[in-house]
Amino acid sequence: MIDDSKLYRILRPIITVVFKILYRPKFIGTKNIPAKGRIILAGNHTSILDPLLLISTTKRSIHFLAKKELWRFPQNILFSHLGLIPVDRTRKSHNSLNAAYKYLNNDSLVLVFPEGTTEKGRGLQAFKYGAVKMASTTNSLITPFIITGQYRLFRKCITIEFLKPISVSCSLEEENHKLRNIIKEKLED
User: CB atoms < 10 A from the CB of 188, how many?
Assistant: First the structure.
């Protein structure tokens, strides 16, 4: 069985307290993150601060898929001890998928930003297939989420909302389209 990182378990409460003091986020629908079992969190990506926001939402360890460009010395040492998974965004990343499958098959929680990058004011981008592929292969549910607002110090300007978990059938193209539409429609509400 894959053990959750001790470093993650030590840092998560510290990150949570500091983040909540600095940004005062609003959390909606956290009950849609199951307390146990395999689950994929998938949603829009607005800022480099999004992973810290997500860490603050649950006591469960989150295994992030993150661009391989972040794996430079010295942060590569920290990232590898926090259960992060490097992803090559320029091509299919089989090693990344296999690492995520191991976590999911051990009833862990994996976070994916299907856009593969931050939105940078361009709105919701096209989704890559990683989230639905992982869900289909490991029979995991996906809990979609949306992040709205902006990160402003000491103001309640950022909100994250978790939607009801969804299951994935065999058509990855249809399921990817469905996932993106769920998130897009909720963002447009």
Answer: 7
Q: Which of 115, 159, 132 is nearest to 40 (CA)?
A: 132
Domains parsed from the chain with CATH numbers = 6-188 (3.40.1130.10)
For residue range 52-84, list pLDDT tens digits in order.
999 999 999 999 888 877 767 777 777 777 778
pLDDT band for 3, please (50, 70, 90 cuts).
low
As a whole number of angstroms, the distance between CA 63 and CA 104 comes to: 9
Q: Which residue has the tokens 């979609």?
A: 144
Distance CA 121, CA 68 (A): 23
